[in-house]
């Protein structure tokens, strides 16, 4: 029988057999199954664009970002290596802080480079306006704040942004060297359902 099959068929059979037994195993395990995307209401993937301004206020009596940790060497490092900040930064439609609030950036940024000012950013954009009210995007990226434009990956999301993936471009709009306060423009492109 085997010698009548064309060359290469046997390995393909073997691979198929392995795949079938793997999926049977997963189902038989009793804790997982294959779902159809339609069952979750996932129809057509869209590409959306969002544009907003991020306000990082570190000075004054009501800062929106606070230093929560540092290393012994942080104060002598020219890049502040080791400093960790927690933020709850407003996101607005226009650069003016008084413009319409569309959400908040909540999470951490930490100085992760010893050779330039480069932050590890771990945060959620939690939207509070319009159809994305209650939905969020999760960011995990690198932010070299003195570069003209920084790209940060969008690694997921919730609500209308379930299964999201994409990227954000950040550009400093204003930076007050005296206080450290900054307004940053964000353009976000994201695939989601
Ligand atoms: C770093 O400097 C700040 C401000 O001067 C001070 O409050 C803090 O204790 C210093 N940290 C260390 C680890 O020396
Ligand atoms: C956003 O959703 C919350 C919770 O459902 C609601 O209280 C709030 O009024 C909504 N905001 C806007 C601007 O629609
Ligand atoms: C965002 O997009 C606008 C319009 O295309 C552009 O003018 C602006 O420079 C972009 N900003 C960033 C940070 O990518």
TrEMBL record:
Highest taxon listed in the record's lineage: Eukaryota
The organism of origin for this protein: Carpinus fangiana
Primary localization class, coarse: secreted
GO (cellular component) term, any one: apoplast
Functional description taken from the UniProt entry: Dirigent proteins impart stereoselectivity on the phenoxy radical-coupling reaction, yielding optically active lignans from two molecules of coniferyl alcohol in the biosynthesis of lignans, flavonolignans, and alkaloids and thus plays a central role in plant secondary metabolism.
A GO BP annotation: phenylpropanoid biosynthetic process
Swiss-Prot/TrEMBL keywords: Apoplast, Membrane, Secreted, Transmembrane, Transmembrane helix
Pfam family, one: Dirigent
Subcellular location: Secreted, Extracellular space, Apoplast
InterPro entries in the record: Allene_oxi_cyc_Dirigent (IPR044859), Dirigent (IPR004265)
TM annotation in the entry: 12-35
Name the UniProt record assigns to this protein: Dirigent protein
Keyword Magnesium on entry: no
Subunit details: Homodimer.
Entry keyword Transmembrane helix: yes
Family the entry assigns: Belongs to the plant dirigent protein family.
């Amino acid at each position: 029988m085997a010698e009548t099959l064309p060359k290469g068929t046997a390995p393909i059979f073997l691979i198929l057999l392995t795949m079938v037994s793997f999926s049977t195993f997963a189902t038989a395990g009793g804790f997982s199954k294959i779902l159809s995307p339609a069952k979750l209401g996932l129809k057509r993937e869209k590409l959306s664009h969002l544009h907003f301004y991020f306000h990082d206020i570190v000075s004054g009596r009501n800062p929106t970002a606070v230093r929560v940790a540092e290393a012994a060497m942080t104060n002598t490092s020219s890049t502040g290596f080791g400093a960790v900040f927690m933020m709850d930064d407003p996101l607005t439609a226009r650069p003016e802080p008084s413009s319409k609030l569309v959400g908040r950036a909540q999470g951490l940024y930490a100085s992760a480079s010893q050779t330039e000012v480069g932050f590890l950013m771990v945060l959620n954009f939690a939207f509070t306006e319009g159809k994305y009210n209650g939905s969020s995007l999760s960011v995990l990226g690198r932010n070299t704040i003195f570069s003209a434009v920084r790209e940060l990956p969008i690694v997921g999301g919730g609500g209308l942004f379930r299964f999201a993936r994409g990227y954000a471009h950040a550009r400093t709009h204003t930076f007050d060297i005296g206080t450290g306060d900054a307004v940053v423009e964000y353009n976000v492109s994201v695939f989601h359902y």
